[in-house]
């Protein structure tokens, strides 16, 4: 999984007044959990743009003044209710020998005969929770729709899982090819025409 570096400064004071001062200065107060003790730090709000405002998922390298660096994942984020600015972020520290659960986006591959025939592809789950060691976290979960006809569904069990485990029940539908209204109408009209033709032959 790709990583983004966040350069920050450790916070000595974590009170409301200091937090407000940070936000007024265009910085985001953050907390890093998962180590011996929580680490409070701040970073420029612009530093989080590639980490937050993207459909992809990345790990983060927290690079603090003084040479301390930590590998982490974004765990929780709070936005301002009016202007949507970032108010606070919680990170969770990654350890090479400890598995972690992360939501990973689903990417569709291949060509579906059902879609080419007029069906509609529905992505039931745009993200899936996976559990793996940090080094094995995938950038995407790939759902191959090759061979899927109208009405077909692709379940979790049909997704390749290499060095990671998908944390959803086996009957979870990842995507499906639904019959479009146009295709359904055409099928109904064809059935009516066939019925009428058979009726005419009986006379």
UniProtKB/TrEMBL annotation:
MF term (GO), any: 5S rRNA binding
Q: Where is the Large ribosomal subunit protein bL25 beta domain?
A: 99-179
* Recorded superkingdom: Bacteria
Keyword Transmembrane on entry: no
Q: Name one Pfam family in it.
A: Ribosomal_TL5_C
One term under GO cellular component:
cytosolic large ribosomal subunit
Q: Which InterPro entries match?
A: Rbsml_bL25/Gln-tRNA_synth_N, Ribosomal_bL25/Gln-tRNA_synth, Ribosomal_bL25_b-dom, Ribosomal_bL25_C, Ribosomal_bL25_long, Ribosomal_L25_dom, Ribosomal_uL5_bac-type
| Domain named Large ribosomal subunit protein bL25 L25: residues | 6-91
Alphabetically, which GO biological process terms does the record hold? translation
Classification via Gene3D superfamilies: Ribosomal protein L25, beta domain, Ribosomal Protein L25, Chain P
Decide whether keyword rRNA-binding is in the record.
yes
Q: Which UniProt keywords apply?
A: Ribonucleoprotein, Ribosomal protein, RNA-binding, rRNA-binding
- Could you say which protein family the record assigns here? Belongs to the bacterial ribosomal protein bL25 family. CTC subfamily.
Subunit info? Part of the 50S ribosomal subunit; part of the 5S rRNA/L5/L18/L25 subcomplex. Contacts the 5S rRNA. Binds to the 5S rRNA independently of L5 and L18.
Question: So what does this one do?
Answer: This is one of the proteins that binds to the 5S RNA in the ribosome where it forms part of the central protuberance.
The name on file for this protein is Large ribosomal subunit protein bL25
């Amino acid at each position: 999984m790709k990583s983004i570096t966040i350069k920050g400064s450790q916070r000595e004071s974590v009170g409301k007044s200091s937090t407000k001062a940070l936000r007024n200065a265009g910085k985001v107060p953050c907390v890093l959990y998962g180590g011996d003790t929580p680490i409070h730090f701040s970073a420029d709000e612009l530093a989080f743009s590639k980490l937050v405002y993207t459909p992809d998922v990345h790990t983060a390298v927290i690079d603090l003044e003084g040479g301390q660096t930590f590998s982490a994942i974004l765990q929780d984020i709070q936005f301002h209710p009016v202007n949507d600015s970032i108010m606070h972020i919680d990170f969770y520290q990654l350890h090479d020998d400890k598995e972690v659960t992360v939501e990973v986006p689903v990417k569709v591959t291949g060509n579906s005969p059902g879609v080419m025939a007029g069906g509609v592809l529905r992505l039931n789950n745009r993200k899936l929770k996976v559990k793996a060691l940090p080094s094995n976290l995938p950038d995407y979960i790939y759902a191959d729709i090759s061979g899927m006809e109208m009405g077909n569904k692709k379940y979790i069990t049909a997704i390749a899982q290499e060095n990671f485990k998908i944390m959803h029940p086996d009957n979870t539908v990842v995507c499906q090819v639904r019959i479009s209204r146009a295709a359904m109408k055409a099928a109904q009209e064809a059935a009516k025409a066939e019925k009428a033709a058979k009726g005419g032959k009986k006379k």
